[in-house]
Design a protein that fits this description.
Elements lengths: L4 H16 L5 H9 L20 E2 L5 E2 L2 H11 L6 E5 L5 H8 L3 E6 L2 H13 L5 E5 L12 E6 L8 H4 L2 E11 L5 E8 L5 E9 L11
Parallel strand pairs: 3-4, 3-6, 4-5, 6-7
Antiparallel strand pairs: 1-2, 7-8, 8-9
Length: 215
């Protein structure tokens, strides 16, 4: 698979569209302009990879539309060198964006085929500081915690307590919360060992966050 001048031009157009939709973080836009999204979707979609829309991937999952990826990334307020836990590797595209932003990324996927494929694509593109794990996202990675930031890329029916405890003091969690057709995007800040602050943002639609694993 190649990244052509045409693909690069399509990414520039996409970035312009995201900017018009309200994405302001230039580092996020620069990351999206650099990453070949077509590497992360099925080849049959071709140039459509640079449309602002989600695509189905294996195991009944989706790759979020670029606006959603940019929106969540912007809410994280990432700084270079921060340790980030991602719940729901999926295609690996969101992890690549986080890596471009300078994060040290630890990403969990409950579907082994997706985890394996994402790892291969990320390695092929040189994202060696993205660490992929096959496991239950509700449990997080307690042996590697605490994390500066946590991002959840599936609709959470509850806010996982285990993940809140893996967040550093003053750390941020971005999570689409709720069941049904739409979820509310939340940003949770850990203020102390026992105190958390919640901010509410726009509504989105995600596949559900499920417990357990699928081999």
């Amino acid at each position: 698979m190649h990244d052509t001048f045409r693909h690069q031009g399509l990414r520039k157009r996409l970035v312009g569209e995201l900017r018009s939709l309200g994405i302001k973080d230039e580092a996020v836009l620069k990351a999206i302009e650099k990453i070949p999204r077509h590497f992360f979707v099925e080849s049959l979609f071709g140039d459509d990879a640079y449309e602002n829309k989600p695509f189905s991937i294996d195991c009944g999952q989706t790759i979020s539309n670029p606006f959603t990826v940019a929106y969540q990334s912007e809410l994280l307020r990432l700084e270079k060198g921060e340790k980030v836990l991602e719940i729901g590797t999926g295609s690996g595209y969101q992890a690549a964006v986080l890596a471009e932003l300078g994060a040290d990324v630890y990403s969990i996927e409950r579907h082994r085929p997706l985890s394996d494929r994402a790892q291969k694509v990320l390695q092929h593109l040189g994202y060696n500081h993205v660490h992929t794990f096959f496991g239950d996202g509700f449990l997080g990675l307690p042996d590697i915690a605490p994390f500066d930031k946590i991002i959840i890329t599936a609709a959470a029916p509850e806010i996982p307590k285990a993940l809140l405890q893996q967040l550093k003091i003053n750390g941020l969690m971005v999570i689409p919360f709720g069941e049904g057709d739409v979820q509310q995007m939340l940003r949770i800040t850990r203020l102390s060992q026992t105190e958390f602050e919640k901010e509410t943002f726009e509504e989105f639609t995600f596949v559900p966050m499920l417990k357990g694993v699928q081999v």
